Amino acid sequence: MADRILSDFEISYIKQGVLADMRSDGRSCRDYRSFELRSGIVSNTSGSAEIKLERTNILVGVKAEIGQPNPLNPNKGRIEFFVDCSALASPKFEGRRGEDLGRNLAHRLSDLYENSNCIDLESLSIIPGQDCWIIYVDALVLEYSGGVLDCLSIAVKGALANTKIPKLTVIGEGEEQEIEISDNPFDSTSIDTNNVPVFVSLSLIGNQFIVDASHEEEACSLCQLSVGVNHKGSICSILKEGAGSFKHRQYNEAISLASEIGVSVIEKITLTNNTAPEKML
Amino acid sequence: MADFEYLSPEGLRSDGRRPQELRVLSCNISHCLQADGSAYLQQGNTRVIATVYGPHDVSRRSEAQHDKAFINCQFSMATFSTSERKKRPTGDKSCLETSLALKKTFEAAILTDTYPHSKIDIFVQILQSDGSDKAVSINAITMALIDAGIPMKDYVCATSVTLINDTPIVDLNYFEERGPGPELIVGTLPKSGKIVFLQVNSRLHIDNMEKVLKEGMNGNQRVHTILDTLIKKHLEKSILT
């Protein structure tokens, strides 16, 4: 992660704030910052979304392309994730130096999507064993400051909900099957993203887990717990990161907190998706 | 594509513009708060973000120059920016070539001798590509540099021009760029009229060169007027708030 150097005084200020349940921006430990999600902003894509949370800004573009299915799963489509930590966010990501972080984030997303079975991949199959839809989810980190994994998962969910896949008809039988794309560009299907989970990251500061840490808070937290939560509040994945450790009791509290927060975040995404006018960037 | 009408009998282009008409240009200055200077520029359907970091310390000793600032430029295109998905956002041949061209352009425009032993980072990212990527990038970088407060000789304004049926056409969109005509991209310092960036793709007859170049320079003057008003509006707003 991009480093943020804090002085001892800053660290103790943040720690005491967490103890008093009043963080530097006035939030309590359980408060999520408000974010702005806009979808349908890049016209070259099948679906897109942009999220702004304080200074973190991520743009996600989804492209649906026809390709060959994985031989192990001939009757399923594929989703591929790619995260580009661009140099725009920080000169530290210049050249190929943002690649490691990007690959790590993409891997986390694909793990989450694979393990939670949240998207019906069979609906993306066109001709089993021959053709399927490959959904390329490309994220671009434009500004980087805290909560990147959370934002990324929210933006990806928003972009997938916005994605339109052209309707196809398969002509012919047996070996000589052909695909025909509908002439009407509005004739399309969308992806069911109802079950898609989002990440809720909790950071341990002192002895307390906090929700939606800012860049400064992330820098003085020794360990993070990223929890994948779906709309029902079920946990889809858990990963502990960082060098710190925590007690079993804290873990239970953290998980129930994450599940609660996750549900409210997903509610907000659905709300913006349903009401959002398709505005430009 | 051969019978595609780039210029209708009425003299209008495929998107309804007149031959010398620019696309609608809008710009959001200070788009990224983290950077020292940034601009989001939209010209028609081409959208670009440029950020500037610096002048700051050089990251490698070899970059330090005793008499002027080192300018570093990275041009990249989002993987979803083009109609065909790109495999990598940066590092391919055309991106590297563009990076170098942009670097040279701005070395000519920035008063680099003001900041010896330091480095200025310029990063451009195409979010959505619909023709004239380089020209729009140059305009966006200019705005970002002004936002960063880096002294320059003048604005650098750029437009792309092609020639269809002996009529010069300014500010190309994707279809016109891919069309049969030659493409000339020219970047100038509008006040002095000096050319700092020039690129011609495919053959262009020497007799037509003058005509096309002149139209490009005229386009740059118009871009300059727009950018100048945008900057002044932005400053007014930031002074008032």
TrEMBL record, chain A:
UniProt KW Cytoplasm keyword: yes
Database matches in InterPro entries: ExoRNase_PH_dom1, ExoRNase_PH_dom2, ExoRNase_PH_dom2_sf, Exosome_comp_Rrp42_subfam, PNPase/RNase_PH_dom_sf, Ribosomal_Su5_D2-typ_SF
Top-level taxon: Eukaryota
GO CC annotations on file: cytoplasmic exosome (RNase complex); nuclear exosome (RNase complex); nucleolus
GO biological process per UniProt: exonucleolytic trimming to generate mature 3'-end of 5.8S rRNA from tricistronic rRNA transcript (SSU-rRNA, 5.8S rRNA, LSU-rRNA); nuclear mRNA surveillance; nuclear polyadenylation-dependent rRNA catabolic process; rRNA catabolic process; TRAMP-dependent tRNA surveillance pathway; U1 snRNA 3'-end processing; U4 snRNA 3'-end processing; U5 snRNA 3'-end processing
Transmembrane intervals: none
Domain Exoribonuclease phosphorolytic, first and last residues per copy: 32-166, 196-260
Record keywords, A-Z: Cytoplasm, Exosome
SUPFAM superfamilies: Ribonuclease PH domain 2-like, Ribosomal protein S5 domain 2-like
GO MF: mRNA 3'-UTR AU-rich region binding
Main location: cytoplasm
Pfam families: RNase_PH, RNase_PH_C
Localization (cell): Cytoplasm; Nucleus, Nucleolus
Family as reported in the entry's similarity comment: Belongs to the RNase PH family.
Name under which the protein is recorded: Ribosomal RNA-processing protein 42
Species of origin: Amphimedon queenslandica (Sponge)
Gene: 100642061
TrEMBL record, chain B:
An example Gene Ontology CC term for this record: nucleolus
Localization per record: Cytoplasm; Nucleus, Nucleolus
InterPro entries attached to this UniProt entry: ExoRNase_PH_dom1 (IPR001247), ExoRNase_PH_dom2 (IPR015847), ExoRNase_PH_dom2_sf (IPR036345), PNPase/RNase_PH_dom_sf (IPR027408), Ribosomal_Su5_D2-typ_SF (IPR020568), RNase_PH (IPR050080)
GO biological process: nuclear mRNA surveillance; poly(A)-dependent snoRNA 3'-end processing; rRNA catabolic process; U4 snRNA 3'-end processing
Keywords recorded for this protein, A-Z: Cytoplasm, Exosome
Alphabetized PANTHER family for the sequence: EXOSOME COMPLEX COMPONENT, EXOSOME COMPLEX COMPONENT RRP41
Gene Ontology molecular-function annotations: RNA binding
Keyword match Cytoplasm: yes
Residue ranges annotated for the Exoribonuclease phosphorolytic domain, each copy included: 21-151, 154-218
One Pfam short name: RNase_PH_C
Family: Belongs to the RNase PH family.
Organism of derivation: Amphimedon queenslandica (Sponge)
Protein's name in the database: Putative exosome complex component RRP41
Self-association state and partner proteins as the record states: Component of the RNA exosome complex.
Function: Non-catalytic component of the RNA exosome complex which has 3'->5' exoribonuclease activity and participates in a multitude of cellular RNA processing and degradation events.
